[in-house]
Specification:
Helix content is 87%, strand content 0%. By secondary structure, the chain is mainly alpha-helical. It folds into 2 domains: 35 residues; 73 residues.
């Protein structure tokens, strides 16, 4: 196990403290900004949240597809059936995640009323 000297320890905790403080200040600023606004157009917020969720799910699904495709290509070179099976499973998970995730996000956004 690697030993950490007191300067590194203090530096890491100071960085963590600054990050926590900045997060709290940003949250307070966001609350103060929205609290002073009389009306908020929630359709823009709902559209932004929906777009962000679909983008995140699609990126994660594409990552699974990419990793699965790489595993399948590597399995062809080494004739490894286990790696090929793992690659096919990762491809299926990626495709399923994109399809099911997008459908669920669209369904939940229709159910949510702002």
């Amino acid at each position: 196990m690697k030993k950490i000297n007191s300067k590194q320890f203090l530096k890491r905790y100071l960085q963590l403290g600054v990050m926590v403080l900045m997060t709290v200040l940003m949250a307070l600023q966001a609350f103060a900004t929205t609290a002073t606004v009389a009306t908020v157009d929630t359709t823009e917020i709902k559209g932004a949240v929906q777009g962000a969720l679909i983008a995140i799910i699609s990126i994660v699904g594409a990552g699974f597809i990419l990793v699965g495709a790489i595993a399948m290509i590597q399995s062809q070179a080494s004739n490894d059936e286990n790696q090929k099976s793992q690659g096919i499973k990762q491809l299926a998970v990626g495709i399923g995640l994109i399809v099911a995730g997008n459908a669920l996000v669209l369904g939940f956004m229709q159910m949510i009323e702002f």
